[in-house]
């Protein structure tokens, strides 16, 4: 993803995360157990962090450039879809098997942040 696309995707993910946060706080409060609300909140938190991370990566692209930041942004998006997505579905459906794929998203997040560090270390400027 180029920097512009990454900002757009990050901002749209922030929009979705705010919607999900509000929905969890107001719409789901009486429908889900406390355990499932905590899971929902975790999904929102990680979505927010990594949506902001995508915007930060886009802002770093002109400074450090390179494929590492491009991969980092893509991995953050994949992590949101897999990590937060699986937790949203787990909270809504109670299907515990969905928790088995959540760590794949977590690994995507970890790899994304290592790539940010690598891009800064290698730096173009």
TrEMBL record:
The chain crosses the membrane at residues 6-25, 37-59, 71-90, 97-121. Keywords: Membrane, Transmembrane, Transmembrane helix. Pfam families: DUF423. It is found in: Membrane. InterPro entries: DUF423. It is a multi-pass membrane protein. Its main location: membrane. Belongs to the UPF0382 family. This is DUF423 domain-containing protein. It comes from Herbaspirillum robiniae.
């Amino acid at each position: 993803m180029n920097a512009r696309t990454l900002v757009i995707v990050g901002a749209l993910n922030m929009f979705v995360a705010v919607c999900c946060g509000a929905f969890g706080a107001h719409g789901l409060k009486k429908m889900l157990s406390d355990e499932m609300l905590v899971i929902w909140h975790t999904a929102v938190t990680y979505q927010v962090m990594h949506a902001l991370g995508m915007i930060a990566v886009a802002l770093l692209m002109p400074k450090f450039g390179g494929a590492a930041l491009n991969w980092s942004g893509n991995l953050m998006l994949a992590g949101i879809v897999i990590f937060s997505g699986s937790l949203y579905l787990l909270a809504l459906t109670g299907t515990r098997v969905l928790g088995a794929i959540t760590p794949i998203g977590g690994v995507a997040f970890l790899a994304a942040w290592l790539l940010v560090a690598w891009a800064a270390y290698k730096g173009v400027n």
